[in-house]
Design goal:
Layout: E1 13-15, E2 21-23, H1 26-40, H2 50-61, E3 68-74, E4 80-88, H3 98-107, E5 112-118, H4 128-142, E6 147-155, E7 158-161
Parallel strand pairs: 5-6
Antiparallel strand pairs: 1-2, 3-4, 3-5, 6-7
């Protein structure tokens, strides 16, 4: 006999320290979603459309209460080499250092990169600072022959692509 009512059937459950199943917290669900996307999109997975990129980045960055700046480092056929969360910020900003981004791209021997960060505010529109940063990163990476393909801003279930807006 189950201890759950029919209204509880859609609740995700986790095992607590005593071995009992209890409803998962939103944070536990987000952590599990990030693990699941890592299993689905492994090294060598091809990012063949903007929708695949957005879905992947939303799964990775949605739900953070602070800004997180990340990069998808890709080979010359746009297959994933590695997803790296490079810089952690506050609720409305993250300091990003182009030198460190270039070093990581060279370390991974990347041919291309897609940047992403989240807006905990829930508004995916790029700020002027986002546009300036994207231009600076693109210029720095061009010096070492790494292409900047996009910068995706994630805000919960919404996202904005600077490339789709002609800003990359």
């Amino acid at each position: 006999m189950s201890n759950f009512t029919s209204s509880d059937e859609s609740i995700l459950l986790v095992r607590d320290d005593a071995g009992r199943y209890v409803p998962a917290t939103p944070e536990q669900i987000l952590v599990a979603a990030r693990r699941a996307i890592d299993l689905k999109m492994k090294r060598g997975a091809a990012f063949t459309s903007p929708e695949i990129v957005k879905n992947y980045l939303q799964a990775k960055l949605a739900g953070f209460e602070h800004e997180m700046f990340a990069a998808l480092f890709l080979d010359n056929r746009h297959r994933m080499i590695e997803y790296v969360e490079l810089f952690r910020g506050t609720i409305d900003a993250a300091s990003v250092y182009p030198r460190e981004v270039v070093k990581e791209a060279l370390r991974l021997n990347a041919a291309a990169v897609i940047f992403s960060h989240n807006h905990p505010s829930g508004h995916p529109e790029p700020s002027e600072a986002d546009k300036v940063l994207t231009r600076r990163l693109k210029q720095a990476l061009e010096l070492v022959d790494v292409r900047t393909l996009d910068h995706v801003i994630v805000a919960g279930h919404a996202s904005a692509s600077l490339a789709e807006h002609g800003l990359v």
